[in-house]
Design goal:
The structure is a homodimer. Chain A is elongated and about 80 Å long. Chain A has 16 helices and 19 strands. In chain A, strands 13-12-1-5-3-17-18 form a seven-stranded antiparallel beta sheet. Chain A has two domains: 248 residues, nicotinate phosphoribosyltransferase; 170 residues, TIM Barrel (Alpha-Beta Barrel), CATH 3.20.20.70. By secondary structure, chain A is α/β, with parallel strands linked by helices. Helices cover 40% and strands 18% of the residues of chain A. At the A-B interface, helix 1, helix 3, helix 6, helix 7 and helix 8 of A face helix 1, helix 3, helix 6, helix 7 and helix 8 of B.
């Protein structure tokens, strides 16, 4: 298959608009900001993620000869325009919230300042990269809050929407606090800890379940986690108990059993009881199968003896919220602030900054969205990350981002740490931003 | 970023199981089948899609030196096992339903027959590829059924889950009957017709809306579709009417206007009236913004004068059904049929075929799932597509698949062509398949 990082991974209208800008000589600086308009009711906050891949995309943006030839053949474009595209690179500036930062509606998480055609062209892929990881990091953070102290592993590659979704979901889940992933490529690409033992097919390919357990223990003596629900979960535990005794003589320890179907809570209690009764309290219980943050919350609340969870499909598809209402909007062109007023899609104009204030206990208290030239007390969340098309810092380690997320989740007011919304976080629009908006509306003739 | 077609795009447990199989010399032929267990209530049928990419994956499956080195460093594997992986290729057979075929619960859409380790290893990526395109093709088919004869364009790249999802969603939508896509890369990769004109930012970057319309018409004289909802939709139509007169002198025709916000139905009627009143009945109306098959159905029902639709986020995320309950299960190993009996996840064992019967009017009437060695009347849906690791046919053209889908949708009973379920399609399990299942259960000790 083709290069999945191609610059042609964009909407055709970006290129038809570019031909317009090029023809009209509209090459002044434009400012675009990326934000999420309205949050769904079951998201109290979102976690910014995907910046690393976005910067990588901008730094490497080029039209290859093959791509130019394809564009020429479409009939939409002039040859001179395509010659101009062939030499295009991204030379602009980027300010952004660091990955792992909690954010709220209408707050820009990324600003691009660049000659209009460049800033326009990158819209589609920037949204594509940032919305997806933000979506998954936010879902994963909810799981982390719902199951404090538990081992959480991303199992969702198979039902993720394609290869990149699978890979980047593993990254987003890890930076949000997951322990690791089953995705081997994510292990290689991002040094995320990888987890995995056996599927039902391994048991089924053997004529006997105990024989399958034994063979696996010999094949993976340091990684013995046995899947016990292929036929009869409780009967399988008896086999595990017998095998544990046998393996002890070979100095092999069974780390855990995994349950993947049935009433996980009820089964876990029965399995725990049987294992404890046999003196095998060091064997842990790992569960998987159709899990999400709500299931985790119930297990936590009911003190179910499960030490770790594989969270799959519902994590990597963010099934209850499979997309965010995010936008990348022109806020300023040629030093004049701009505003879209389409019904239900109005935006706050101008170059903005978000200031965050904390209370005495270290919890976040209030955010203020204002214009860049209106400094406020508090932490300025958008920071310069790219200047003239070059990154200002070396890429952050995933570990550092993961710590920032943990710190951000800790700083959330307790009413926002729940799965359902109990309080609204105050995001204030500054007087000068409101004033600018009114001035533009007057100019457009709306007031 | 790394190669998104890497063989490491798999779950770690596939590789730990493989080390077990390798160690135990379990290299006999295994049969795995891929199917969807239960359909969600708002899917009367699914459309098989993604086979082309699945076969491509199998034909090119290799472990590179870099990948082997990474695996060595994880500590999970023996060196000799990694040497064995380094020479692994896929040498098995594949039978499958052709892309564009309508299918129902429990019907295998793909069967892999290969030495156990090979057949096991490919599980994750096969599901990843086939479930996603099937998901999107099925969602797209619902849009096609809801808006017969309309121009339907995939606009969903930006909120698709990553690059591959965006690219393959365009393919899946097109094969299901969409007219084209905004995704330029999909145009290059799959020769899908591409569509696109302008965004709100183009209008906003100009100081005057009419000036923006005029400049665009000159930049794209053969592709003049004007976005009219940036400020005031009805006032913008007046500008379009004035511009049409002016452009006539230059022999430039305005093809359509696009509305992207507000009450699309009400606006379309008012816009149509204004255009018709000005004698501009040749200017079409194209709508976009938060659309799905239910919105299309309402427009069709109410005869709203909109000729084309851009369907974005809800198509490429399949928002109401963001994943399918699909599985790839071991059905036979070393010539012995196998069956998983985990609670709620029981499977039909053995190598199966699906026969489809048609009534006199050409509508599909009934499917029968049975064993391969139990031929039935009707059309056998699974066909050989790969033998000893090599494709049996050259890849089908997307156009041919698109025609097959159209034929399949036409052949659906009318009760299944609706968006909500009104009838259930009969899928019969053959007596010999039921018998085999009972025999296995007896052997496992369940009955």
């Amino acid at each position: 298959m083709t290069d999945l990082q191609s610059v042609l991974l964009t909407d055709l209208y970006q290129l038809t608009m570019l031909q317009g800008y090029w023809r009209e000589g509209m090459n002044d600086n434009a400012v675009f900001e990326l934000f999420v308009r309205k949050f769904p009711p079951n998201r109290n906050f979102l976690i910014a993620a995907g910046l690393e891949q976005a910067l990588d995309y901008l730094e490497n943006l080029r039209f290859t000869e093959e791509e130019c030839n394809f564009l020429q053949g479409t009939g939409f474009f002039d040859s001179e325009f395509i010659d101009w595209l062939a030499q295009l690179t991204f030379t602009g500036d980027v300010d952004a919230m660091p990955e792992g930062t909690v954010f709220f509606p209408d707050e820009p998480i990324l600003r691009v300042t660049a000659p209009l055609p460049q800033a326009q062209l990158v819209e589609t892929r920037l949204i594509n990269l940032l919305q997806f990881q933000t979506l998954i990091a936010s879902k994963a953070a909810r799981c982390v809050l719902a199951a404090p102290g538990k081992l959480l592993v991303d199992f969702g590659l198979r039902r993720a929407h394609g290869s990149e979704a699978g890979l980047l979901a593993a990254r987003a889940a890890y930076l949000a606090g997951f322990t690791g992933t089953s995705n081997v490529l994510a292990g290689m690409e991002f040094s995320i800890p990888i987890f995995g033992t056996m599927a039902h097919s391994y048991i089924m390919a053997h004529d006997d379940e105990l024989e399958a357990f034994r063979a696996f223990a010999h094949a993976q003596p340091n990684n013995v986690v046995l899947l016990i629900d292929t036929y009869d979960t409780l009967k399988a535990v008896d086999k595990v108990i017998a095998l544990a005794e046998e393996l002890k003589r070979e100095n092999i320890t069974i780390k855990a059993v995994r349950i993947d179907s049935g009433d996980l809570a009820a089964l876990a209690k029965q399995v725990r009881q049987k294992l404890d009764h046999a003196g095998l309290d060091q064997i842990g219980i790992f569960a998987s199968g159709d899990l999400d943050e709500y299931a985790l919350k119930r297990f936590t609340h009911d003190n179910i003896p499960i030490g770790g969870f594989g969270i799959g499909t519902k994590l990597t598809t963010s099934n209850d919220v499979p997309y965010l209402n995010c936008a990348y909007k022109l806020q300023e062109y040629a030093s004049i602030a701009r505003r879209k007023v389409s019904k239900g899609k109005q935006t706050w104009p101008g170059r903005k900054q978000v200031y965050r204030r904390y209370d005495a206990s270290g919890k976040i208290e209030k955010d203020i969205i204002t214009l860049m030239n209106d400094p406020q007390e508090g932490e300025a969340l958008l920071q310069p990350v790219m200047k003239n098309g070059k990154r200002l810092q070396t890429p952050e380690s995933l570990g550092a981002i993961r710590e920032r997320t943990a710190y951000n989740l800790e700083a959330l007011p307790s009413g926002l740490q729940t799965l359902d919304q109990t309080t609204q976080y105050p995001v204030e629009i500054s007087p000068c931003l409101i004033r600018l908006t009114q001035e533009i509306d007057k100019k457009i003739g709306l007031r």
